[in-house]
Every structure is written in C-alpha cells, then in structure tokens.
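pasting for the record
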Amino acid sequence: MGNELRIGIIGVGLMGADHAERVVERVSGGRLVAVSDPDTARATALAERYEGVRALADPLDLVADDDVDAVVIASPGVVHEEQVLACLAAGKHALCEKPLTMDGESSLRLVRAEREVGRPLVQLGFMRRFDPEYARMKELLGSGRLGRLLLVHNTHRNKDVPDSFSSEMIVRDSLVHEVDVARFLFDEEIAEVTVHSPTPTSAAAPGVVDPQVSVFRMAGGAVVTNEVFVRNQVGYEVRCEAVCERGTAIAGRPWGDLYTTQARDVGGSWGGGVPADFRQRFALAYDLEVQAWVDATRRGEVVGPTTWDGYAATVVSEAGMASLASGEPVGVRLADRETLS
C-alpha cells in the first residue's frame, strides 16, 4: 500500500460525519476520498465540503472502488453484515462502528468469514479502549501493582435520547460499551447477565425502563455492576472504577486531569458544565482510535477490538435483553473460539 491510505466512509449521519471531519482535519496518513449514505443529498453535501471527495449512491460500489483502500462503516447495524462481508471479499480493511451485527448468529458468520480470508481485516469501534484514562487503567491493572482485579463499577449517563430509544436499545446500544470494558479489563468473557429495572425516571418515554442497573458475572467469578441512565437531563457522564486487592483505579473521575467537570444539576452550575454528548467526552479517544486504525492498516495489521470482540459483545447484549424481559439472570453462550472454523 502506498504512503497514504485512501479512505471511504459508509454512513454519514452523526458518527460518520464526525469521522469524516476527523480524517480530514486530525488524522495523519489517511485521506478521505469517498462517502456513501442512503440520504444521497446528505452524502453529496458532505462530499462538497471537502476537496477531492466523491459521493457514491451504493455503499457496495464504494467498497469495490479501486480508489478506496479502506472503509469506515458508520451505517446502522442492520446493514453491517453485508458491508463487512463486502470488505472481506475485497480484501480491504474496515473500521466498523458497533454493533458488529444485530444478532450473535450473523456476527459469528463474520468471524468465520474473516478467518476464511486468512488474515484479520476488521477493527470494531469500541473507542473506550483508546481513551487515555481507560488505557492507563488497563496498564495499571496489568502491572500487578494493585493486586488481583475483584470488582468493576461502571456508570454511563446520557443527557437525553430520542423517544424512539427503547429499553432494549439501552442494552444493545449503550450497555454494550460496558460489556466491552468488562471484557477488556478482565481479559475474560462474561458468563452471566442480570438486568434490573429500578423505578423509571419521570423523564423516560412511555414504557421505557430508564435507568437500568445490570450485573455481569465474569467467567472467573468476578462481578461488574453497571448503571445506564439515558435521560439524566444533566449531561454525558461515563466513569469506571476497578476495585483490586490493594487499591482502586478510576477512569472518568470528575476531578481528574482529563475530565474536570463536577456539575450535578440540570443547570450545570456546580463546578462547571457536563459534556453534552459522547463526542466531547471521547473526542480524543476517537482521534486515537482512528489514527491507530490508519497506522495499522498501512502496515497490513489490525489493532484494538476484533470481530470476535464484536461477536462476544453482541451475544452478551442478547443475553441482557433476555434478562431485561424476564428479570432473571441469563447465561452467555459463546462459540468455542479455539475450534471455530
């Protein structure tokens, strides 16, 4: 591959447009050359903002285009399987936003398809792994300085979501990040999920369970607790506390060096303002994620979350949605990774 990675982006809604700006303005070694979106007017308008960028109506045409070396997939999850398969068939690296697909069966098909290609080509967009605070936490836990990791407590709050954001979406689209964080920090799989339904906020859309509190039991017996609250009306807050035998580590601490806000009311008047959404809180994480993807792709490698990570997260999310419906613990059943063919 040449010195510059020519990048195409599929899906230029909120996340895709953000990635387009990132590639053009903040990432080195890559150049945006094409975009595609079902809303052709939106794709055309975005392409016209940047010199040398074309808008293609068909996302599969973008994948097949000889002038596109690698693809960012920021389209809805329902079309990811087709688009990732197209990238694999073309031998092109892809950065696929979560979810890998909408169900475990189709995600597993992509894991198998990539193995048939004979080399990794897909990185999943779990950006928290690239956030400096989470990365430092992972490094600290790996050093052994704090002893064995025993518990993890996650907090995930959004200021607001559309009325169409259902109880199931809170599990599939929000809690899925905590799923990846737990697997990332423990280096093991989640064995069981229980989703609890506290009294919902008065701000919740009719019939929506918000907030939700879930408990993961890890394969090694450790426990992870998660609060997901998507209409807290204050701002976007994400924190993680790792409790070890000889101390604790916290990412996203409100008084930390990278995330300094301490506000806790709707007006954001105590200690400063809370970020309005994820793009502000994790802006650096996204920059580092895409830069790492570009650098690795130019080397012919994949770094960060893999198709297996995407598959595992989807299966855990399915178990979480089943637990949400039943109120009971649900076991997680993954394929045998070592014998998978």
